[in-house]
Amino acid sequence: MLENSLWIEKYRPRRFEDIKGQEHIVARLKAFVETKNIPHLLFGGPAGVGKTTLALAAAMELYGEDYRKNILNLNASDQRGIDVIRGEIKDFAKTISMNNIHKMIILDEADSLTKDAQHALRRTMEIYSNTTRFCLIANYPSKIIDPIKSRCAVFYFKPLEKRHIEGIINEIASKENLKVDNESVDLLYKVSEGDARKVQNIMQSCAAISKVISKSTISQVVSIATPKEIREILNLAINKNFIKARQLLLETMIKQGLSGIDVVKELQGEIINMEIDDEIKAKMIERCGEAEFRLVEGSDDYMQIEALLAGFVLIKK
Fold first, then answer.
1. In terms of CATH architecture, what is 227-315?
2. Domain residue ranges in the chain
3. Average pLDDT, integer, range 9-16
4. Which end of the chain has the least Cβ crowding within 10 Å, N or C?
5. pTM for this one?
């Protein structure tokens, strides 16, 4: 097996035609590239859905073999302060391309930039618009200031649909001589949440264990609880058997190596499928949201999960 970064690089598409699930965005961007005059761009959306790949594909189509000379690809999460804007980005932006096409600065994780850095970037985009175009990539475009958004053509990416993830799985399985059954494909799609990069990572880890990728192999790699265990925990809780529900949940967390947030997501997903009153479902999901917020803020996993179960016990009258 290849190293993780090389594995992803191996299956990363480099042409517009290869990019899955973002056809409307590809069509719009392709029209800009054909005119050889693209605007400033802002790509927003969840991780692993093709934002960076599409930016690189556009650069390759636009500049051909000279694309490396005409793009500057930076990750703003590494250097998020104002110095990187005044230094490396400004130095690249003020030089003129030799082929009479605007150069491109691809700024990944742009939502990690501080507010001061974003205001400096806004000014740089304005001053050097005759020589350089910016492609800003953000998982959370709401964190980008409005003056930058107003200067960009904004594209919102969506998670990949099941058919696209399935196509990626089948392509990798064929090239790597892996066997993946339909149940495993369904589970891979569920745990990836439409993230192609996550699918590739999971498949690589599974392939290191066995050439046959099964539900049990995937469960070992990603540490997920089985729906049967989660349903049993929920049934015990809503039937006021708090001690048994707590015991089973703690055993599941330890056995599977689950974090508190993992457990909350598993519980929330299974609550929807339970045959209980909708009002009770709504209250239980509300409790899940409260628990997740506290966990994100740094609360103790076990204490919050126990409190969540206690909340479930107290909901049903």
1. Up-down Bundle (1.20)
2. 6-156, 162-222, 227-315
3. 61
4. C
5. 0.73
